Amino acid sequence: MSERYELRFSGAGGQGLITAGIILAEAASIIEGKNAVQSQSYGPEARGGASKSEVIIGDKPIDYPKATIVDACLAMTQEAADKYANGIKSGGILLLDSDFAPKAPEGDFKVYYLPIMRLAKTEIGREIVANVIALGAMIAMTGVVSRESGEKAVLAKVPEAFVDLNKKAYALGYEKAQELLA
Amino acid sequence: MAKKVALLQGNTACALGAVYAGCTFFGGYPITPSTEVAEVMSEELPKVGGKFIQMEDEIAAMASVIGASLTGAKALTATSGPGVSLKQELIGYACIAETPCVIINVMRGGPSTGMPTGPGQSDVMQARWGTHGDHAAIAVCPESCQEIFTETVRAFNLAEKYRMPVQVLFDEIVGHMRERIEFPEPGELEVIDRAAPTCAPEDYKPYDAKSDTDVPPLAAFGSEYRFHVTGLNKAADGFPTTKAELVDFEERRQIAKVECEAARADIESNEEYKCDDADVIILAYGSSARSARYAVNELREEGIKAGLFRPITLWPFPEKRVAELGKQAKAIVVPEMNLGQMIFEVERIVKSDCKLAGVNRVDGDPLTPGQIIDQVKEVL
């Protein structure tokens, strides 16, 4: 791993992207014993509005806690893509929701599309797990933590009754992203 | 046994640090970006037999904290800049009545409502001079979630030991970010309780100082020790006085108890990173110090001898060490998420011994390492 690996999860407030960031940071720092810092920025609204969550992962202690050059970015809405899909490094990764963020900003990075919200609705039957699908996809694309650590962190976060649902969502996101990369 | 670890937000770490220190009372009026401190205290205090009260406003919250402390409890409130503004009169009361308490200020911008969800460091002078009148101040400024835990514990210790309000300042970035925390075992960190009187109740005088830097023991209201508390200048027995020599002695002692050499050595805490041979010192605190450490590493790679001096105790300001660094370095650069506050304190100490430059940002985004690096190169 490089000294710092920077991920940004962005979308609309209420989509669970801050939670996705927290789960990834837990997978990295608590389960895998790396250094990780999760931070967020949001407006005064309770829901809606663009929100972002950043996770910096590294082998050494993380000084500056926010992103400098983003290795991988997720945008779940067009507003988030326009506002937050920037500062991505050359050769980096941008994952967009194909229905809600169809227009990628220009840049020297790889752009991938997944219908994340649609997958949540049609394949899992619950839109609420879109963030877990997205997390699975981001972990598959970046390899920043192992598939197993990611799953363990997801399941540690959800109530017993929702374990299967989230397990399915995580696997779906992970596998769909693998297909994209194949 | 392996230590308990968790990924925790700075605000949560603060609340858990308070509980570790033995805090049993929280009186507050929640405000972004400090709200989680109140939230977690409302969950944790009942578990340890403590009391959580959401008061009608920030002023009442501060009053409740002073009242609770006088009954012997370790008491906490948490707020942000606008809330500290409202608490100022009572912070002064806690200074003169020598009442231990801890005030958390999770800093956003300002003045007034400002940008509630954005970070700021513009309350550092408020922490020193916010309340009127001559008074000492103790304020600490952690930079990480782990340090928020330990500095909150230390803030309680200092409050109890020096019988006065202590402020813990950290900005929204550290308050809301999450990092891994290792929980100290009970007994691993020092926990200090205020000195209790040993005399007979009828002989007790709440301000009976034995020297001009002494901190007299504080009895608990409701115990067999009965005493008078007032915001007026008072004599050793706690009752108001206008006697010139008594007023003068009290005023000076309440500052000297914090600023005398022995107390400074006890209270001051700094981190020095690559300062030994540094040509340029970056003096930074809170989350800006994290950017500064990143900048120091980058600058060193380019062959520029930079170092970080990080006051963890902002007040009393580490005057002696900063004066030495001013003589050693060609320049001191002070990055702050305000338009220049601590830099004036640095200037007061180093005078014209070295060049001095600020790096300032108040747009809601953190200072970046790049901004600091640019200023260092400019000043050299």
Description:
- The complex is a heterodimer of chains A (182) and B (380).
- Chain A has helices spanning 17-31, 78-84, 116-124, 130-142, 147-157, 163-181, and strands spanning 5-12, 35-41, 50-58, 70-75, 88-97, 110-114.
- The relative contact order of chain A is 0.18.
- Chain A has one domain: Pyruvate-ferredoxin Oxidoreductase, domain 3, CATH 3.40.920.10.
- In chain A, β4 (70-75), α2 (78-84) and β5 (88-97) form a beta-alpha-beta unit.
- Chain A is an alpha/beta fold.
- With 380 residues, chain B is α/β, with parallel strands linked by helices.
- Chain B has 3 domains: 5-182, Thiamin diphosphate (ThDP)-binding fold, Pyr/PP domains (Rossmann fold, 3-Layer(aba) Sandwich); 201-265, no CATH class; 270-379, 3-Layer(aba) Sandwich (Rossmann fold), CATH 3.40.50.
- Helix content of chain B is 39%, strand content 19%.
- Chain B has 13 helices and 14 strands.
- In chain B, the strands form 3 sheets. In chain B, strands 3-2-4-5-7-6-12 form a 7-stranded mixed beta sheet, with helices on both faces.
- In chain B, β6, α6 and β7 (165-171) form a beta-alpha-beta unit.
- In chain B, α3 (58-70) packs parallel to α4 (81-96).
- In chain B, 54% of the residues are buried.
- The model of chain B has no long low-confidence stretch (mean pLDDT 97).
- The chains are: A alpha/beta (182), B alpha/beta (380).
- Chain A binds chain B through residues 22, 25-26, 29-30, 35-44, 62-66, 68, and chain B through 5-7, 32, 116-117, 173-174, 176-180, 287, 290-291, 293-294, 297, 366, 368-370.
